[in-house]
């Protein structure tokens, strides 16, 4: 069994950008793929591709001679769901009415906010460490400037409207944090108390914001105001990442020693999980709070829908918003 | 050895006239020294007629010629005067006049003048160059003044087009260049060139050639270039290099070039094999390449006698940044041509070997850079291609060596190319090639007169990966046993510029994924 698992691990390799800031990889997209595979409990090896920061192919997943690239089809997570041994983690939750609005929020508002913060808002040191620190200085600098210019162009940021745009981006991110905080409450996962790809995407965002961005970062400050979100991120970091070997700059780095994440109610003996247990007893008040949170999320989604259709400020929005969402079910 | 003055007279009838006419050929007007000539010339008081003037001049020249052929005529150069250069700096021209100042005899002086004219013409910045000898001051006997008359090129812009061979990439390139001469008056030649070649190689470059910078021994050659090469078909990657090169030393036997560049490897098709995939990305190339070449063969196109030796050392990673591409690549190439003395038969033997490995911290776990590895194969004749282990008769470009399976996609049909092998040639860290070629004249006289001859040949070669602990699995015996071998025969048509071969190859041994085929093929090779 161990040999079989070891063989499967060797056969499956996730290639990501470099580990840094105490995370197995500092890149949000790579980290979401990593967390997704961890939640799927697939044994795999982690490998690093350090000199290609502007590649759209990274992260990629190698299974023998076949490869799943991030820039194919709907991204690496959607492709991994069809991969043998991985399975569809979203089976049963992706049809929920809240699914698509949450996905839109995570993949547009929060993704754009983090992208802005890394390359424009911050002094750029975090992005440089994650993407360019393994390239010789002149090449790293040129690629960084190229990417920063691209991000500004994507968001329509000019010298005249820089402040306005910044407020807009941070405002949307804050709204998203508020909505998600209300939605999550004290739950372990975003949907039906089981892991899903949305958890992988949100966790990667949260961990990069908390650990890679400097303390003075506006995005980090706003995120830190939501204590349940911080708790959610730290809890999963402990379970998924720190429970195994610590992340190291090692081509054969393998951090899947612990696979304690589960879809069912947790029976782990860790302190975090015992705390979760005690908080699982929903009171009437918490149920009311959840209902109100759903109304709040609905309001945010309508605002998103209006913004996308009227303002048309995004260049790369792949997610389609279904008209059916306007009348989604608000029942528990 | 012909007499210098007779040699000049044979070349140019105007050399004996006191006022030489404009002539593109080597033109030298020598006048007699003042005091010696007075003894033999008649003292004419009345203005001479043209006919008698001509007779006098002829008499003077004949006398001088007799003296030059019978004795060493002592002379000393008093002054060198340069006329006609409005843009070109004086010291640029004076630097080409070496040997003239130190000449002690008339014969030496004339030889030095011939050489100076040749060097000045080689600068390509003058329309004409003439050197005149005039008598020195009367108070200084046996002296002469050397007057250099140059006419700077009116048309400073010129164009060139040519086809060149690049054995390192096993391809030909068509190159068109626009040259601007003598922009700053240093004899500098600026050129912009665009080259297009096999494997969709394109190069856009801007270069300068400065023959003389003060105190430096050799010309400076600098280029800024953007090169792109498509190896998609063979190795599933494309290469782009944006950089600059500086030729530090360039002599007959030694070449030293420094290159600084930003190299990017990409795979738009996303079909590359694992080791190619892991090398995609950016790298900084800062390297020094030293070439020592000695070619004592009688002909680079059809060598029948002599030997040649080439050593190339390429050291990368010459920058304080440890993240630049660090490697050491060494190649050797030895050739020997042995004549047999009948039917112009000659046996050409050659052996080439090369190795590349990374250096720096953790080099045991690193891999060698993909473009620096050895790729064997290509339609070039190894007889005239002197440049390390590159070609082997019968195998296509990058047609033999270590391979890896390309990406297998479950969803795609993967039918882009009907005969696509689905394997990437990833190159070797160690390569060895050897060949033997017996050439002989053909019995038909017409063919012999045009240099067309026959040859039979045998070639062998192999490449192996050594880095990333692969050297633990390497054994010389296995390496020798896996040598690919081919034999063949054919007709060779040598021309002044290249060597055309029509050969029949028979592959004696090849590996499963090698791209070599028994059959008939033409190949064009240029000497390198």
TrEMBL record, chain A:
Membrane-crossing residue ranges in chain numbering: 295-315
Entry protein name: Metaxin
Top-rank taxon, per record: Eukaryota
A Pfam family annotated for this UniProt entry: GST_C_6
Record's keyword annotation contains Membrane: yes
Residue ranges of the region described as Disordered: 243-286
Domain called Thioredoxin-like fold: residue spans: 28-123
From TrEMBL, chain B:
Biased composition (Acidic residues): 20-40
Keyword list, A-Z: Membrane, Plastid, Plastid outer membrane, Transmembrane, Transmembrane beta strand
Chain segments carrying region Disordered: 1-58, 395-420
Topological relation to the membrane, as annotated: Multi-pass membrane protein
Subcellular location field: Mitochondrion outer membrane; Plastid, Chloroplast outer membrane
Keyword Membrane: yes
Native species: Stylosanthes scabra
Protein name: Bacterial surface antigen (D15) domain-containing protein
Keyword Transmembrane applies: yes
Biased composition (Basic and acidic residues): 404-415
Tree of life domain: Eukaryota
Coiled coil (UniProt feature): none
Family, similarity comment: Belongs to the SAM50/omp85 family.
Domain Bacterial surface antigen (D15) span(s) in chain numbering: 182-524
InterPro entries: Bac_surfAg_D15 (IPR000184), D15-like (IPR039910)
């Amino acid at each position: 069994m161990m040999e079989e698992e070891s063989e499967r691990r060797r056969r499956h390799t996730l290639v990501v950008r470099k580990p840094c800031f105490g995370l197995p990889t500092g890149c949000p997209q790579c980290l979401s793929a990593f967390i997704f595979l961890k939640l799927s409990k697939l044994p795999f090896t982690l490998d690093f591709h350090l000199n290609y920061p502007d590649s759209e192919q990274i992260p990629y997943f190698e299974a023998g001679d076949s490869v799943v690239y991030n820039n194919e089809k709907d991204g690496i997570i959607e492709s991994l769901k069809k991969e043998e041994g991985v399975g569809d983690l979203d089976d049963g939750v992706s049809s929920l009415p809240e699914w698509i609005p949450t996905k839109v929020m995570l993949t547009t508002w929060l993704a754009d906010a983090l992208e802005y913060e890394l390359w424009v808002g911050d002094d750029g040191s975090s992005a440089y460490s994650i993407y360019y620190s393994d390239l010789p200085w002149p090449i790293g600098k040129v690629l960084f400037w190229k990417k920063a210019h691209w991000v500004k162009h994507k968001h329509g940021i000019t010298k005249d409207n820089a402040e306005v745009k910044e407020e807009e981006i941070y405002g949307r991110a804050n709204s998203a944090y508020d909505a998600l905080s209300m939605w999550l409450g004290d739950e372990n996962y975003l949907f039906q108390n089981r892991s899903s790809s949305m958890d992988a995407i949100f966790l990667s965002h949260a961990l990069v914001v908390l650990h890679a961005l400097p303390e003075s970062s506006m995005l980090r400050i706003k995120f830190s105001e939501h204590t349940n979100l911080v708790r959610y991120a730290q809890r999963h970091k402990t379970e998924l990442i720190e429970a195994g070997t610590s992340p190291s700059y090692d081509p054969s780095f393998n951090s899947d020693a612990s696979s304690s994440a589960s879809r069912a109610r947790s029976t782990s003996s860790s302190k975090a999980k015992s705390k979760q247990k005690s908080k699982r007893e929903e009171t009437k008040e918490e149920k009311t709070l959840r209902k109100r949170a759903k109304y709040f999320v609905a309001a945010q989604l309508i605002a998103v829908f209006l913004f996308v259709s009227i303002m048309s400020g995004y260049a790369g929005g792949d997610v389609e918003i279904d008209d059916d969402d306007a009348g989604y079910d608000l029942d528990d | 050895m012909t007499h210098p003055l007779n040699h000049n007279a044979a070349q140019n009838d105007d050399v004996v006239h006191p006022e030489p006419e404009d002539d593109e050929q080597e033109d030298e007007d020598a006048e007699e020294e003042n005091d010696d000539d007075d003894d033999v010339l008649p003292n004419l008081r009345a203005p001479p007629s043209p006919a008698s003037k001509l007779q006098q001049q002829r008499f003077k020249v004949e006398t001088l010629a007799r003296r030059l052929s019978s004795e060493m005529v002592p002379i000393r150069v008093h002054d060198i005067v340069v006329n006609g250069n409005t843009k070109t700096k004086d010291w640029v021209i004076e630097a080409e006049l070496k040997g003239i100042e130190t000449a002690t005899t008339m014969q030496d002086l004339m030889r030095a003048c011939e050489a100076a004219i040749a060097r000045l013409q080689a600068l390509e910045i003058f329309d004409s160059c003439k050197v005149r000898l005039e008598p020195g001051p009367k108070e200084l006997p046996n002296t002469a003044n050397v007057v250099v008359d140059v006419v700077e090129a009116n048309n400073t812009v010129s164009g060139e087009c040519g086809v060149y061979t690049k054995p390192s990439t096993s391809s030909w390139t068509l190159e068109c260049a626009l040259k601007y001469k003598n922009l700053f008056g240093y004899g500098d030649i600026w050129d912009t060139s665009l080259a297009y070649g096999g494997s969709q190689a394109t190069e856009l470059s801007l270069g300068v050639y400065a023959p003389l910078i003060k105190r430096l021994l050799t010309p400076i050659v600098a280029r800024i270039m953007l090169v792109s090469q498509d190896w998609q078909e063979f190795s599933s990657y494309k290469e782009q290099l944006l950089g600059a090169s500086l030729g530090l030393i360039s002599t007959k036997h030694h070449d030293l070039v420094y290159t600084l560049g930003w190299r990017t490897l990409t795979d738009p098709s996303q079909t590359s094999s694992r080791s190619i995939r892991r090398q995609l990305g950016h790298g900084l190339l800062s390297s020094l390449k030293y070439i020592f070449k000695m070619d004592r063969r009688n002909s680079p196109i059809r060598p029948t006698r002599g030997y040649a030796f080439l050593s190339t050392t390429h050291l990368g990673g010459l920058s304080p940044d440890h993240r630049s591409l660090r490697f050491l690549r060494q190649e050797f190439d030895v050739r020997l041509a042995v004549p047999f003395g009948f039917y112009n038969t000659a046996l050409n033997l050659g052996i080439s070997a090369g190795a590349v490995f990374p250096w720096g911290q953790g080099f045991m776990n690193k891999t060698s850079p993909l473009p620096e590895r050895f790729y064997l194969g290509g339609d070039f004749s190894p007889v005239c291609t002197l440049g390390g282990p590159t070609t082997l008769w019968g195998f296509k470009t990058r047609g033999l060596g270590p391979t890896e399976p390309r990406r297998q996609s479950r969803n795609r049909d993967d039918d882009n190319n009907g005969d696509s092998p689905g394997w990437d040639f990833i190159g070797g860290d160690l390569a060895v090639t050897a060949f033997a070629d017996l050439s002989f004249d053909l019995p038909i006289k017409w063919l012999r007169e045009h240099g067309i001859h026959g040859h039979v040949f045998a070639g062998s070669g192999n490449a192996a990966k050594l880095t990333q602990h692969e050297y633990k699995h390497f054994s010389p015996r296995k390496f020798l046993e896996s040598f690919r071998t081919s034999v063949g025969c054919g007709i060779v048509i040598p021309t002044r510029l290249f060597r055309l071969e029509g050969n029949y190859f028979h592959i004696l041994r090849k590996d499963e994924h090698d791209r070599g085929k028994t059959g008939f093929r033409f190949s064009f090779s240029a000497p390198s």
